[in-house]
User: Fold Glycosyl transferase from Iocasia fonsfrigidae.
Amino acid sequence: MKFGYFNDENKEYVITRPDTPYPWINYLGSQAYFSLLSNTAGGYSFYKDASKLRITRYRYNNIPHDVGGKYYYLFEDGEYWSPTWAPVKRELDKYECRHGLGYSKITGEYNDINTEILYFVPENANCEIHRLKIKNNSNRKRSLKLFSFIEFCLWNAFDDMTNFQRNFSTGEVEVEGATIYHKTEYRERRNHYAFFTVNSEIDGFDTDRESFMGLYNGFHEPAVVKNGQSSNSLANGWSPIASHSINMDLEAGEEKSFIFQLGFIENKKAEKWSAPGIINKTKAYQLMRDFDNDKKVDKAFRELKDSWESLLDNYQLKSGDEKLDRMVSIWNQYQCMVTYNLSRSASYFESGISRGMGFRDSNQDLIGIVHMIPERARQRILDLAATQFEDGSAYHQFEPLNKKGNDAIGSGFNDDPLWLILGTASYLKETGDFDFLNQKVPFNNGKEAVLFDHLKASFMYIVNNRGPHDLPLIGHADWNDCLNLSCFSDKPGESFQVLSNKEDSQAESVMIAGMFITFAPDYIEICRQRGEEELAREAQNYVEEMKEAIKKHGVDENWFLRAYDYYGKKVGSVENEEGQLYIEPQGFCIMGGIGLEDGLARTVLDSVKDRLDTDYGLVLVDPTYKSYHIELGEISSYPPGYKENGGIFCHNNPWIMIAETMIGRGDQAFEYYKKIAPAYLEEISEVHKTEPYVYAQMIAGRDAATHGEAKNSWLTGTAAWNFAAITQWILGIRADFNGLKIDPCIPKNWDGFEVKRVFRGDIFKIKVNNPEHVSKGVREIKVDGTRINGNLLPVYQDGGEHDIEVIMG
Assistant:
């Protein structure tokens, strides 16, 4: 069942009924100010950090779902409704939500009154615009009342939910004309405030939630709206809100426009007070003036759309498959940008309170955005490197406001260091900016270093932390946060005995070993680019040692072992009753080159197909854990088929896609791609539930009661890895240190495809032809009509366009 459709020309997903299987959201903002908005106007806003600078309140996991948002109400002759359907949920005569790139437009019509609300965050502005157009489509004059509503969060979202004994006394607002200022705690420590305004005279306002709602009413029946009259309440403590009321008469066919603006202001200390106790509003006034009429809003909206067009123009695909084209050219890149901005912090599945910016997460996100915003990728790498310890380990998360490591989470995830090599190598391949390696960035302890020192520390951390099988120690966990093998019990075998996480554990990870040999060649090439030949030779020797360790201790019949636990027992082996085959090491060990020459890779991938494949993607482990295994940590705490216990963890499916391309099986790689790509799942939205335009982190596996149901959409490494799998390995166009490599591995029945790829300032228009209908192999490449040797497009950097003709065979 479909709940809407793609409009590729406008780069929008158009939702045609409000009761989607789960709230389908969009993200507004791309720099500092962000807003989440559902298809029925639910959501919340924040500045930089969803935890510490939350502007509006949202109620997670509530009944009914999606409670709290940016709401508007219309009142006429004792009847009221919401133009966005929610929260009143009166059935509308017409409804449509258009989620576009950085904006959403919700249209509703009831009793011949048509409304259109455009929501967006202008480029480089710390505010969001709600432009509301109201049109009388009837043949008679109408008298209406419009009510706005937002609920302020008291900045610190965790404290806002917990510290009521204090918070009910601190809420502080100020009303000036049509502007409601939220200045709670402005007097204490902070120099920031928010405001909600409209470019019209108002007929009333409310700033106290209880006065607006009524103590026992919900968002669907606010007392003020039911009565058709604002109470002009002023919040003194309790729960501050912002609501305006505007009375209007509309002649037949007449339309009026109102521009509401929710803004954030941060003053310097010297600007804190304009007078004792009075906030300095200079910046607020200017921000209001910037968007106070339709002409200015239209200009800002055009600039926003132009910005997204420019970003996406760096990679455009024409394949003849509209679902593939829209994923590659529009939605996958859009999701990569949103995920880069927010890591895993704020979604409808992440509260924005408990998560900062992940070290592992953010490095992976770079592979999906570095072709669009290399300069921002550069800064993110420096921010991440600054949280690294001198021994190469790193804080698992850092705080977006101060860019300091999160002490509550700490370090000890032993895969983290390697991701810095991936992120940095991706940037260097895209830009050729090798001087970046000399950028000064200290270690977490303040010791002076340059970026290359961090890469060396990352590499050597793995070398220096190996276990009894010469495989890398897992620490608290590797990529799979729920596989916690560094555990011991004084009474092994007693399943409910409390375990401890032992720092001197010898638990080892085959997956980290696979990552090491996959990312090490880039580190070695970086050493050589710097003239560090001795370092490169030493690194290659370590790679050979790791490969031998994997071959000797990491292979288990027809696949790779997952790990060894604290007691030295195999994990992911036929010797185990449950959890015999894990997906993660199968992809990485093959990407690292093991099994490509002796046929093992094909055997392993055949086992993956046989044991892990389902109609909705590859499950993480088989068989699932039916009982709790305390020595494995969190993984078996999930019911079978969910999350890491046999769920379809979409993040790691691309590793298998890439491995399939390395043995030349393009049909199989693309089959796996289609199973989890959201555009191909639109027809089963009632099963999939989450948005049909962005990837989810997890889809319930075959042992789950709800096989095929997705969770945790939007902010997931799935976005970047799937973009890499399809663009770099299946379509086969990937940046390398010395040029752009062309190495497709596609389904045999494809005739070819065309890609526009901007690379180091040049525009490559690449046309791939597949006359012999092979999956892999490049017979000939011509650049501007001249045949070149090999399959590496040279770096021209002449700012021009180059026509590339590729003949497969």
